[in-house]
Write a structure and sequence with these properties.
There is one protein chain. By secondary structure, the chain is mainly α. It is built from 8 helices and 5 strands. The strands form 2 sheets. It has a 3-stranded antiparallel β-sheet with strand order 2-1-5. It has a two-stranded antiparallel sheet with strand order 3-4. The radius of gyration is 16 Å and the shape is globular.
């Protein structure tokens, strides 16, 4: 099962900047807050904020494509599709140094609502707090099957299954043409 939308790199970058700017969290915390915000958005609106794919890594779920953006800026991995990220932020160790403010035109009202709530509720967490928060059953199932790899995809249905409206969400996510009869 894939997400209802494809990955949106520009929106991902703006959400990353938004969370880094408004939470003051380091890389680890910022990426975890994006996961929490995406779960909120999925529960409330039936979609992810920017169509991300999540992977189970040792220290918790990671937004795969957004983490690639961070690694690219850090100099770890060249990817031309996210070249604009280098003009948006730099990394000082695991801390973001923003070169510009997020472009709020890229983020809808519902996107900002969920990002703000994740920041308000969990932005002050430390490493252990983020670890406890995001090491949920979806992460655990994917991590247990990681084998000799460093990460394993977390199926969106696994994330949806954790939410109060799981049955409806899973049905919605399975529909290749939502809204049409």
């Amino acid at each position: 099962m894939s997400g209802p939308t494809a990955f949106e790199p520009a929106k991902s970058l703006e959400a990353l900047l938004y969370v880094a700017q408004n939470s003051g969290a380091d890389m680890y915390g910022t990426l975890k807050l994006l996961y929490v915000a995406d779960k909120l958005h999925l529960e409330r609106y039936g979609s992810l904020i920017f169509g991300e794919d999540y992977a189970a890594m040792e220290w918790g779920p990671v937004p795969s494509n957004t983490y690639d953006i961070v690694k690219f800026v850090r100099g770890d991995r060249p990817r031309s599709v996210i070249e604009a990220a280098k003009a948006a932020f730099t990394m000082n160790g695991n801390n973001f140094e923003l070169l510009r403010a997020p472009d709020l035109d890229e983020l809808s009202e519902s996107n900002r609502e969920c990002l703000d709530e994740a920041i308000r509720r969990h932005g002050a967490n430390d490493f252990e707090g983020f670890k406890r928060l995001t090491h949920d059953a979806a992460w655990g199932a994917a991590w247990r099957s990681v084998g000799d790899r460093r990460s394993n995809p977390i199926p969106l249905a696994s994330v949806a299954s954790l939410l109060p409206n799981a049955q409806d969400l899973i049905q919605h996510l399975s529909d290749p043409h939502p809204g049409s009869d």
